[in-house]
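Would you be willing to look carefully at the protein I have copied below?

:::
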Amino acid sequence: MYTGSLPSVSNREHWDLSITVTDITTGTAIDLTGAVIDVAVRDQLALSQPVMTFQSGDGFVTIETPATNGIFDILVPPSTMQQLPAGHYDVGIRITLASGRKRQLIQAVLVVVDGIVIP
């Protein structure tokens, strides 16, 4: 599992993140065929329920083809990012493989900055 910080993002731009899932012992890509990726964003100060959740297939989280390459992308548009005031957010990313096995991939902090420029 990765813990730490994700690259900062403005609340007036796309949050664009690409992740490659690999086996830590062999370094080979994990087959994401039939997998479900869940992403949750929670206000770090409130420590309550997530303020945003995304899941593969919802248009925000996409498993790249071929799924055997182990790559998925998160792409959240500015219209959705504007719902997040500037601040620090906890981000959790979990994968459920086709076998039913669940893994917490990421538990990290995302800094959202005020984008200032209004479209």
Observations:
- The chain has one domain: 2-113.
- The beta strands are 2-5, 9-10, 15-20, 36-43, 52-55, 61-63, 71-76, 87-96, 102-113.
- The longest helix spans residues 78-81.
